[in-house]
Batch of 3 targets.
Target 1
Amino acid sequence: MKNFTTVLKIAPAFLLASSMMHAQTQDSTTKEKAIEEVVLIGYGKQKKSDLTGAITSVTEKEFNKGAIVSADQLINGKAPGVRITNSGGSPDSAPNIRIRGGSSISAQNNPLIVIDGVPLDFVTAAGSANPLNLVNPNDIESFSILKDASATAIYGSRASNGVIIITTKKGGGKLKVNFSTNMSVGEVTKFADVMNSSEFVDYVSKYFPQSRWKLGVAGLASSPTTTGTIYDTNWQDAIYRTSVSTDNNVSLSGALFDKKLPVRLSLGYNRTEGVVKTSDYERFSGALRVTPTLFDKHLKIDVNAKGIISDLNAVDQDAAIGGAISMDPTKPIYVSETGLNGNPYNRFGGFYQNTALVSNQYTTIGQSNPLAVLLQRNSPQKIKKLLGNVELDYKMHFLPELRAVVNLGIETSESNLETVYGDNAIQTYRLINKAVTPNDYVFNPGVDYRERQNILNKTLDSYLVYEKNFSGFISHFLIQGGYSYQSFRNEGHKDQFRYNNESGLRESFVQFPLLNPNNNYYNLTNLQSFIGRTNIDLVNKYLFTATLRADASSLFRKDIRWGYFPSVAFAWKITEENFLKDSKSVKELKLRLGWGQTGQQDITQIAGYYPSRALFQEGNAGSQYFPGIGTYSAIPFNDELTWEKATTMNAGLDFSLFKNNLITGSLDVYHTETSDLLAKVPYPAGQFLTNEFVRNIGSTENSGVELNLTLNAIKTDHVIWSISGNMGYNKGKVKNLDQLELIQGQDGGLPVGTGNILAYNAVGYQPFSANVYEQVYDANGNPLAGVVVDRNNDGIINTEDKYFTAIRPNWTYGFSTSFNYKKFDFSTSLRGQIGGKVFNARKLSQGYRQSSVPQNGLSVNNANSYAATSPFDNITDAVIYSDFFLEDASFLRMDNATIGYLVENAFKNTNIRVYASVNNAFVITKYKGMDPENFNGVDNNFYPRPRVYTIGFNLNF
């Protein structure tokens, strides 16, 4: 059913009070010094020495190198307190970005992303897991990461989890051409630890001798204890491959028409193969930026346009990766023989598939052939995206200190998704129920799912800014005021299908007389704001900043939709005082203090687009409730919903020590309290058709310390060497949940049984903590099956004996070094975490022996190598939730190592840099599963992160 929204009835107005400057890009990209001294602060820019908030800037020279597909990979490990965890190694894997741990337990926790002044919606286009794929990494000049509320409050309700401002390159000066190309080869470095064919035959023979007949491909003389023809298949090796990828970029930049029209144009092509077969990603990108100045430099115009066309083939990760782990290794990949009594092993396009005669028909049993799952299915996800803006910045002729700025931005995307099966695809094989012969079956090639989606987000910022420098007690003064409007539209249609039980044919899910309207969606929301900022600098020593933002969100009821988010900050340039002004060892020392509030209203992922309004849906023929045609109120709503608020206090110290800034860095401590949490909680029985709804509930707190250090060790004519490191500590706690003790986490389900949840948000513990039993061990340190600690000593083992333990790490760190000798350069980046836990789900699901014998009794599943000596014969609640399967997730990963050589004047006015690099070079960890870097804390069917070797060159002329 098409849903409708209430659009805010607030007439656009322009308010000069105290406001914000729009996020402008830097005026120069040709001088490294300018990049170092000017930092984007969110709707403005400021000298680094004048910052009052907690902001980390990462410039192009500090970026991670090598095979970079997404912008987030450039800064992973580069900023303290910023944890970036990709969901896996697939080409389009989505980053989970947490700045200082995040502030919410159910609402959006990713930071606001702003690209050249246009804020992105982190709710991505269908088929695009990563919003940062919108910008080509080769076009990016710098990142500014805003952390504390005194820096982020200017963004109000969209900044409770921090802000990342991305600045792209622009043109100027003489015409320059840059061309870069590279080729990469990726490999899987670790397989899941399962048995090979010989080990599995011995294992089944020892523990399940009556199931030996299920091994291999059965022959005519099969008996319960006689195997068929045994094959030796490494199913993981069958689905993985050595991937080959390439990234190519060309850009032209300069100033045309007597240097009056700075222009930069870039084009890019990236083709990335995933290490799982058929998981291919292709992206065409283009960017244009024009930045002229008119009327004797009184009018600055900034025109930006960035676009991509991408095509991803999304694989069925659970069926392929999970199937390769659990598939019987004694079965072949391909088969041509008919098998026992005409058993149709060869019906499936030459792929082997285990089948059995049930009720006079051959049905598929056990796992689907993992390689067939990949090769017989295509899931193209074609996406077009455009991000653009036009900014006019006019300096008044009659009063040059007064500027008027208007920025119009747009973000739009078009997604086309399909799932298409080929001929004889195992997953479309269906029996005809009324059949009486073994050959009554049907395949269903063609489209199995289709979705079309369009997103259109618009931004309008308009403001005045008055800024003036003085020579007296007040050395600098700025006041700004303005209005902002953002609208978000998401509409689309899904074509869904089902299989007819009688004919076995796929058919459209049609409800007479019309297509089910639930397959159509149209969502419209908006956010309107009045915004302001004032800066005062006293005698170039004492800096004061105050901001205020008022937001109104259409997600809330009209009379409670306004939220107000203030901040204040102070900085003291201690080195400007007489007692340090002439110091030879302390070159810069600045104290920062800040307080501020930010809001949260983005709950669309858990509550839909209309959480405070009653909605109705159509019933359908298969509905358990209200079958047939008819509307019913099935979606819970809460018209009392209001803003979640985060209040942050921050104290920081920036410093530069010794000659030539030998040591530079910053130290920050912070404390954040979030109240009126927007969270899913249990709903009273008998209300709606669900047991959960969203309301404001309780509070959390986060505290932490961040340290950033750089050692400029050597700087001579021939040798330059710098070392950088950062470390962040963050600890969070749920303070209260309004009379509830805990609520379920949004992720963290376990792959055994039904409804087994590992992670919860519980009062007194870190958000998203594991709720587990304490395992009991024998004298040799081996776990005793089903024996756990009776923590309350009542003689009964039940959920009261579980305890909570943190999944996410408290400590994260990063380290990098850059060394240049004459024309050679070398750089490396490492990062890691101390603490945290990962639940080794495969050790559980394939580490107890009964998992090898499915309940249908007609096939066997491969087992983890641990199962051969495992004490766990079967699973109980005490086994499923045993902390034995929770392992230490500490790790150190070398993200990148690169070596390069610069050939100057290889041709006339042409420089060439050639380089080689390796990404994901190694991981040091005690974790025994696939990968310790796991955001949700459950390691199951994980798409492996490949090691990638790259060679390439850059050409400049």
Target 2
Amino acid sequence: MKRLSSITGKLAPLLLAGVLTSTLGSREHTLAAASPQAKEHAAPRTDWPVYGGQSADDHYSALHQIDRTNVHKLKVAWTFDTREPGGLQTNPLIVGRILFGFTPMQKVIALDAATGKNLWTFSTGTPGLQPTRGLSYWTDGAQSILFAGLLTNLYAIDPATGKLIPSFGDGGKIDLRKDLNEKDVTQSFAALTTPGLIYKDMIIVGFRAPETEPALHGDIRAYDVHSGNLRWIFHTIPVPGEPGYETWPKDAWKVTGSANNWTGMALDETRGIVYVPTGSAVNDFYGFDRIGDDLYANTLLALDANTGQRLWHFQGVHHDIWDRDFPSPPSLVTVRSHGKQVDAVAQTTKQGYLFLFDRTNGKPLFPIEEKPFPASTTPGEKASPTQPIPSIPAPYARQLLTADMLTTRTPEAHAWATEQFKSFISNGIFVPFTVDKQTVVFPGFDGGAEWGGSAVDIKTGVIYINANDIPWTGGLTENKPGGSLGANVYQSQCSICHGGDRKGSPPAFPSLIDEQKRLSDAQVTEIIHNGKGRMPSFPNVEAARLTAVLEYLKTGDTGSPATSAPKSANRNEIAGAKIYDKNCAICHGDDLLGAPSNYPGLLGVRLRLTDQQILSNIHNGKGRMPSFHKLSDADTAHLLHFLGDSASPIIEAAVTSNNSSKKEVESALAPPGGFAKYRFTGYRKFLDPDGYPAVQPPWGTLNAIDLNTGRYLWKIPLGNYPELAANGLKDTGTENYGGPIVTANGIVFIAATNFDHTLRAFDSHTGALLWQGDLPYAGNATPATYMVDGRQYVVIATSNARNPKGPQGAAYVAFALP
């Protein structure tokens, strides 16, 4: 942690006019953490001014106009169509009568919360397709600031006008890639997927980073809300002299990255403590260069919100080699433990565990035992001998796949799944991956719990967790010498998601085979540089490397580029393959097939996108893809060459020109420093040939757990596949993204499901379905509830990015009583 001097700039008072004057300047939105009893007797808040409802991230609302007796009468009150394609995962803010949200192209919008009428729109002028799950709002009662993370920047916006506040940072924005000891930020990627938290006159932020090298250190930072000056920083990868440094190899902090907070935080405003869960260090699946526990990766941190000083921590996974990030923001709750009221913090996990701690000191409220797990058989790897396992509550997702659990949906699906299962290693959680064999990860890489977070009834101490319950598989393969430049770039950067065979794991990670038939080279370039959905941007994939990987996507290097170079192998293609392996294969797979709809296939990508678009994606990132602007021009050209023929070559000459240095080409050909001996073969969802999970239902669930006792109150399937339900296979549950909310009078609202386009209301006591409303698209977001003019609304952001076969679009839909 580094304490910096506080330099507070002056912000001219905002001129709030018309309807915005009365709604934004009406009161000070200071959300002090109060006891459940105090909150129960206080006048209920009518707005939703913080991501997750309030800084405690409990997703709780004291509004009670909508109750068990009338919820069935809910009707659509208004719909706002963004008229943009792409994903929309936003939990909007409602302050007074104004709703603040995003569009899929990363525009910020202000709507009249009673009618859905657009009041203003802010755009940076550069469209983005990265996930933007919420905004942050600061006010002192006289002034107000809206903070929005767009691409690699944090913007300060006047909420009354939608204009930038120029006194903040550099003309109204700060670059999130700075202040992280990075010499050339243009070659790095950082994006604010989940909004920062406001504390006093600071905004505390994490950021999203790539899953592959190069990746920034995932440091936690606090900025002055007025000036944009850095107030404090906490190093999640300790530097010499800091506690935790001893859990890494010497000087590992110089070469490794990430251990970032991408999923959000929770804040105890009364005590001034911010709770920050972090993800894994890179590379995710082969940790040969980070042997040790790797603090503070995969850690729940309790930091002094005033200074960034660490108060306590708990590491949920030691030396993570499974991508087991803490996936959700923690929830603050008061429970009864050993006869006393205890202010607690609850943290969910991808693997289906829930940890509960006294939030003042980190003491576990349910027993946690360090249990032994298998050693790694991969040369150079050293798995942790133990992992922390809570004894209570029981996991909310299945953790061991056995033959008797395989799908029986049809005889053909069962036979196929049985044959596939015979080739897998399936021994439960925390089994290290092996070389050239698939290991079952259950629940999968997307959980268990996910980024939507949980809801907590602050009156009862019951937590509501929606979970995915689908197995995936993963494995390692050797980075062998030879192969084309494009193949190597693909294997190192893309295969982690799209697979070594480019087949991906649709729809989560799209196939890249025949990608040129769907996208132009320009479109692929744009996605590489800007990211899209869950794919981060890859600004370091440019020039020769971009050319090579685009070519590889078209041809697939039928001469087995990943294992041996053809006798006539072009030096540029070989260099491109190396670059691809390092930067692209982690998501797009060994074979460029990706895993639709999460990681697109790259086969033939240069026939679908122009090289300019490909370069744009590589440099800027797109969706979940980070930027790869650290790649040199020569390397990018090699990568493009590797990706195959282009319909619009603009940098082909860079591959063979005199400006493409011999040293750069030779460094790409050499087995290096820069390439690990083994790489991940790609995220593979275990789906049957018809695209359904190859395991028996439930495939997604909603769970109610009493945190006072650790006992389950109820557990139900969440979601349907409409076509299966029409044929009698109902209540299977589905993958779900986005969380629930809970109201004071016992209603849990949740959408989240991928395929049935439904917002549901459940009885919080029994799990009984009370109502469901149709949505135009999937509600892959967390709802919000608020009251305007005496009328309570429930609003949800909808889109269909996770279901490419469904209708495409994005809209906000608000429901209310007639």
Target 3
Amino acid sequence: MRPSPPQPAGARHPNARLPRIVPVNRPAITQEGIARMLETGKLSADVDLEKLLINDKSFTTRKMKVHPYDARLVPAVMTNLSPYNKMNGFVLDVADIKKVPGKLNLKDLKEWESAERDHSDVPYTPDFSLRSRSSQTQLASPKREDTRTYAELLDVYSMHEFIIRKGATLRSTPEFASFKRRYAASWGNVELVIRRLEEFLKSYGIELAYVDGRKVVALATFQIDDLLSREEMLQCFANREELEPLTSSVTQQFASGVDGRQLAARKIQATWRMYSQRIAYRHLLVGTQAAIAIQRRWALYRSHSLTRKTIKTQKEARLLSWKRTMEEFTKSWPKIKEGRRTIVHLPSLSYPRFHAKHVPFYFALQMGQLTRVADLRDPLVDVIMIAPFRPEPEVLEYYFTLLEDSGVVNPRGRLTLLVPEDAKRLPSALSLTRLLLLSSRLMKCLSSLCKNRPAYVVPGVIGAEELSLAIELNIPMLSADPTIAQAISSKTGTQRLLELAELPKPVGIYGLRDRRELLSALASLMTEHKEVNRWLVKLETESCSRGHAYFDVNRIRVLKSSDESSKTYDGVLAELMEYAGKRARLVHPNSYPDWEAYAAMFDVVGGCVEAVPNRIRTSLTANLFIEPTGVVSLHSVVEPMLAPAFTVMGCRFPFQNFVPYAAVRDAALCVGKAAFRRRVMGYISVDFVLQEAGDGVAAELYVVDVDLCLTNNAAAHLFACLVTGSVYDVETGSCANSNKNESLAYAYSGIIHSPFLSAVRHRTFFSLCRSRGLSFDRYRRIGLVFHMVDVLLCGCLGVLSVGTTRSHVTRAMKEFQNLLNLELPKQSEHSAESNFVYFSSAIHQLIRSVSISKEM
């Protein structure tokens, strides 16, 4: 027969029988219990106990009782309700358990139990299960009748002290044998402790030690062998007093211990390795920290360089865009000046920070050109005025009333006053332009107001901030490029401009860099031009005579001596080098208290020295306007009111006829054309000095200074023409009212500032002025117009006396001075922050000039 092919795994043969279900015979569980049946052999070792336990419900499931968390913190108390209370009557005799031999199989154990039952009167119950004894009383423990052996007594009452000799435990002694029998249950941990003790004694070379076994057991119960300290191991010795001195020193291990020399060598090697690794780690740490510092610095430098490069690129792009805007503004100027336009007035005093901190009332003085609202005279002009603070409503109402009475159409709707939002939080020495740049909200507002309409900025004193503002807003400026303006507005730049105009100027030397060059130039000029009595020194970047000092020739002893041989350059220079501080006179001691401070600033910014004319007949100022197309127009020629210390307080109009008006006009226009060739446009002011010559010689007109901004005197002239309805005649140099055909005369005080002005009551003072007739007559267009910076609390005030004759305006100014003298205390005249003395001196000069004019 052929064998059948093999079937695949798991396939069923077709003739195979189905498996039968064989019932499993479970043995009956007796009262002995499963554990007893397994011990006696009634149940085989491989029997399946799961079904027995489940079917007989030996193990049941029920819902676990969840105790609250607070119950865990309450200590358990044994009460009658506790199930463990049933065990209260049982006594466990350890001695009976120890009688059971250690190594017996199941058969021998049964025989031993039978023998024990035969010798015992108490019946033996093999059931170890706990039965309910609720109805039984507590059973008494059975009494022992046999005597205990010596070994048992030794195990119980022995001290269990054993000996460790030469690092080895004497294990053959009865004490150690009893100790081992007594603590056989935990002998593993005890043995580890004993070994640690042996190693400890061997390491110190101790030959003999007595060990307290009970302390060893206590230590083995609660401690791990690897964490044993020296103190814990010493507590295990009965002769601790002898061992403690031997183990107190570490050198004992190396001197007496086993392999002490090797231990010492390893210790030295380990210490050296530790030391060398620490040194290496310190070097590595220093190198790592240095590398980290270098990397951080390099990353910071790269980021800084990249940021600067990005800013420079963006600034160059914006500068290029602004220059294109300026070119378009220049081309479109004829159309712009005839159409609707917006003028942004920014009367900022952008002095350098080291100069601005010496200017008294610097923050309030930047509000001193509210007279620029005269541009509203043109109905096609909207004015946006940037101010460092918002004036009181009554001050604005005063200006609006003057504008409305002057015929200005809708001045309240065409004038917008903007104030930097963070002006009070920023330092007071910041310029108005810098405050504007630091006010993001105002920048956005200004940008939106000037968007999609012809607009341009008319700045004040031009500094570096004006260029940043123009680039940021991309608005054209009606002035020179700020870089060019800063170069020309310096004293040396002004002289170069006058050289380009080919006009006469005082003798001097310009472009001096330090005090040594200054003294050398003074010595040279004094010896070459002995006819000059006074030499004026000017700081390069100062303004308003704050950087002026002068040397009188009659104070130089070398030049006063009769010895002509000593009147040389070297002699004058030696005296100036030694006594310059005593020979110099400072114009503003509050800015520079002594010569050393002045000379230190001269070393920083430089300056010039020029001659002061011996006999000054008069001073004049021509106010020009240079259009972007190059057309130069003369707006006014006024006579400044000078204080004794070369300080300009205000001005008066018309000027005295000591010089022909045509000569002044032609010289001013010549300076304006030269300025336009230097790409200067906007408002400029040219200062002239008329020097009186000898008999039969005509007076000489010198140009002494140029201001590239709209000055207070120029703005006051425009405001005076506005409130009186007058028009300036360029041909004759006079102003006349077209309706009344009356000539205009006025005197402007400039801004008077004093800390004592804030103590004057605002309403009371102006009520007193009205009672004395010191007010403006809106119908006759004459009287006193107040140049309000804010209420008198700010400490600044100005007046504009308007009339038809010089005597009338001079009388009004004198009455105002007398009233102000009554209101201000006497000590205000000598305050370092007050210019009231200069104002009084200017009024005195004004009265004197009027008297001289009447005599002429």
